[in-house]
């Protein structure tokens, strides 16, 4: 028997990516369809590709109490937390519910592995250099431990690492904790920073494009890797009745088709999609917009285009926004959830940026340019390696026309 999702108010949210810091920067870039991608100026060895790098991460200084967690990933997390008054709103939630009743669930695919890479490049007599001899940053839980300490959160604290679906699945885990009475509110999010492991790893899989990625383009050549930090505060609807944006449901599946390739028929993605409809009590005809996973890899886009054409009503609009941000891996779920929330809040469909010639497999659902449109229900897709799939359903419920 499938359990119905508990609707949750999204009472605060913020995003930091190659588009800039905070919601206004993202909204401006979406409106102008301005990509944040640049030629690779990050990797420790030359790699001809484009990346979504966040400006200013190197200049971030963590508060003195948290220097043991200092690394690029946690600096990016701190930069992200300090946007859109999110820290203030998170502290207010802690005061409202108590530190033990706020959960923290963060997604990441690499955590602070960049610091570990640097340590191995600078070994001293076979040991990590003194400045990196800190166990707190050489663990997948580094990000969540740092944020829990910085926010003084003492409730359930989890790191979720399911590749590209990581920071989408945090919403599902948060909903379960609140529904089961283990927490009254949850801070969810995700952070992934650029590192050699992802840049050279995806390049070894022949998935990295030598030019800016072009999702759903007939001549697409692969992904562009980015970095990002995003956070959202989820609370029970009855405790925040004035919040117009809500999480209606979360759908998940694991198709285990292949380590790095989605099921070509999209069966796992479809299972996650049907799961979110069941849990949220939605009909497919109610969906106004879908932010697609849309990585610009050959196989993902072919699978997802087929899924869209067979599953959605002709009135539903769809697009990918990864040409703007790059594929932010473990942070992609939260960044694209926030883009979806902005679309709902401001009444527009983001265009499928970067397109030159649409893939003939794409149906009439695709919005190739921005469209002004009142939206009530929107989905965000996240499909990770190993067939780890997540679909999130959000709604605007304030009765706007």
List the topology elements:
Elements: E1 8-17, E2 20-21, H1 23-32, E3 38-39, E4 50-52, H2 72-81, H3 86-97, E5 102-107, H4 113-121, H5 142-151, E6 157-160, H6 166-179, E7 185-192, H7 196-204, E8 225-226, E9 228-236, E10 245-254, H8 267-280, E11 289-291, H9 298-311, E12 317-319, H10 322-325, H11 332-346, E13 348-349, E14 371-372, E15 377-384, E16 388-396
Parallel strand pairs: 4-8, 5-6, 5-7, 11-12, 11-15
Antiparallel strand pairs: 1-2, 1-9, 1-10, 3-4, 7-9, 10-16, 13-14, 15-16
Helix pairs in contact: 2-5, 6-11
Description:
The protein has eleven helices and 16 strands. It is an alpha/beta fold and 401 residues long. The longest helix has 15 residues, at 332-346.
Quick summary:
The chain has one domain (about 10-395): Peroxisomal Thiolase, Chain A, domain 1. It is about 30% helix and about 20% strand. The chain has helices at about 25-30, 70-80, 85-95, 115-120, 140-150, 165-180, 195-205, 265-280, 300-310, 320-325, 330-345, and strands spanning about 10-15, 20, 40, 50, 100-105, 155-160, 185-190, 225, 230-235, 245-255, 290, 315-320, 350, 370, 375-385, 390-395.
Summary keywords:
eleven-stranded mixed beta sheet, 16 strands, alpha/beta, three-stranded mixed beta sheet, Peroxisomal Thiolase, Chain A, domain 1, 401 residues
Distance between the termini: 35 Å
- The gross shape turns out to be globular
Q: Quick one: CATH class?
A: Alpha Beta
Main beta sheet strand tally, sense and closure: 11 strands, mixed
Provide the low-confidence segments as ranges: none
- Strand portion, in percent? 15-25%
Q: What is the third-level CATH name, the topology?
A: Peroxisomal Thiolase, Chain A, domain 1
Q: Care to count the β-strands?
A: 16
Radius of gyration: 20 Å
The computed structural class is: alpha/beta
The number of domains = 1
**From the 3D coordinates, which CATH architecture would you assign?**
3-Layer(aba) Sandwich
